[in-house]
Write a structure and sequence with these properties.
about 160 residues; globular
Amino acid sequence: MVVSLETAADGVALLAVGLLLHIAWHDFWHLKIRNTSVLVLLGLYGLWALLGGFQSLTGDLGTGLILFLIGLVMWRARMMGGGDVKLYFALGLFMGIAKVGLFAIALLAATLLFLAALTVAARVKYGGVILCRLREIQDSGKAPYAVPLCLAAVPVILLRIFVGG
């Protein structure tokens, strides 16, 4: 059985989606984005770009750089951690210039949903481990920003894989 380069590239991008979900889950519980996770994500992008013939490399790098710079400003203002800044760069690579606007809208929606979940969790007296963790996050004043970042990125990356752009 011969696998086309396009199919292999789609498989690599789906692995990246799975890794993003793992990153969000880990950040939710530990408020930390591992450097190794971001490095693996960058490696997956490199393989994905290679399999795609580097057709969108310039736009992807530009998008990654723009998101990195936005994250850097937010980091300097103490609004996010360094891991989030590095994650922004990797997400920009997978987003590409054509999908970054959609990502911005999805990020706004994911952030509002996460804030709503924090608010609801703070008002609920009982609940499972997820609600308890949301209350801890609310009380700490620290945010696992990879959660809305990844939740916004996943559908946009899936669109890029299956619809193009």
